[in-house]
Amino acid sequence: MSDLYREIIIDHYKKPRNFGKLKNPDFHGGEDNLVCGDRVEIFLKLNKQKKVEGVKWQGEGCALSQASASLLSEMLMGKSLAELKKTGNKHILKIVGENLNPSRQKCATLSIEALKKALS
Amino acid sequence: MRCIRYTGCMFSPENIRRDFPILSRQINGKPLVYLDNAATSQKPRIVLKAMDDFQRQHNANVHRGIYTLSEEATELYETARQKVAKFINAKTSEEIIFTRNATESINLVALTWARQNLEKGEEILTTEMEHHSNIVPWQILAKEKGLKLNFLPTIPEKGILDLSKLANLLSSKTKLVCIGHISNLLGTINPIEKIIEQAHKIGAKVLVDGCQAVPHLPVDVQKINADFYAYSGHKMLGPTGIGVLWARKDLLETIEPIIGGGDMIKSVTKQKSIWNDLPWRFEAGTPNIVGVIGLGAAIDYLNQVGMRNVWEHEKKFVEYLLPKLKAIKGIKVFGIPEVSKNRGAIFSFWLEGMHPHDLASLFDEEGLCIRAGHMCAQVMLEAYGKPAAARVSFYLYNTLEEADKFLAAIERAKKVFNL
Question: pTM for this structure?
């Protein structure tokens, strides 16, 4: 019905996966989009093999920013630190939509910015 | 005038629409429905043509040359100033200063009259309903000069200023009151004449931000009796980059200019300069000649349609749309709750379960342009406890059919989001 708001986006917006906080995370960071008031915060825990064994996120804002964070959280599970560092905008835009206009791209990639903050 | 199809006998938005080339555009395969008029307006052919003609036929710098071309340019530029003066019933065109936009007009007052006349410990009164452009310049000046900036509160659920607090906030220390004529977030028409009367009683000057008023209803600055009145050309069918500051001549005569250079002086020696007459004293450098000419053409257009007709047309959207919008489950309309004479056709709202940006994106898929965000009115929006709002604002070329498309788009959005 909508090019932008496909079922997967609405689904993740309404039923966010991995939503919440992690106690004693190895990595933790957040990012705000001041223009819209969107916010995404990411918590990561690694196992002995330095791979992600726990991921949680929390936030508020538009469907694109929140669904993207939910989709990203699923993507991060099991990844190595090197793979985490390589995770960028293109990974999320591939799922959410590559034809977003620049202002909406910022919404969709807010969780990537949060991830970068967490890793830095 | 030959590009105006509108004939003036009967107001017809369908006829008016034909004068605006952009309105025949398609967006995402759907006819453009432009509902962001509080941000900027579209331009009729007569405005585009006037600017194009000027640059093709009459382009020269103003107030300079002896040659024919420069005389023509000066004549066109100053004639446009007279149109602007007459449009808001200024006593004389000496009271019309051209700026970039209303924001610059307000800042010009802050940097000249206010900076030159207010002393440490004195107070400026603005309101919680203002656009950022009528708050931030005063914050900057207050910080620089040690002034106190007060805010007249609002009654959010009614969408009006709380006038019961006015007397307490006006004291012998209050030197300037800054108030919006019509709220860009709520559409509320503020009782500016009443406020001006009270402010003048204690000797304060009053600046009115008329951005959402001048394009939409007849404005008479003499009747309003303000001291400064600011507005933008681009919201009233003119081009961007041209704004107006109207100020009472006797006040302007006491103000020192802030921007120096060509055109604002009569003579310059190494020791000193002698300022030019009003209003050029405040227009240093080559002005936005094309912009002024475009604004003049926009005023011609609005005069031909008639500002009373424009206003009557916009009231239809209040009567038609507001009750329907409010009746939609999950919608909260900010501001004046009932159909009222005291509001313009600006509606800000929140749809529960959907961020305004998602709503605006979905509307865009249907060719509808609506605003989403804080509308540069964060102080007011805070009173409603929301980080953002969606806003639609109507103008002379909008139709009730477009209002219906807007209502249908809300229903579609709710479906997409399973609301």
Answer: 0.94
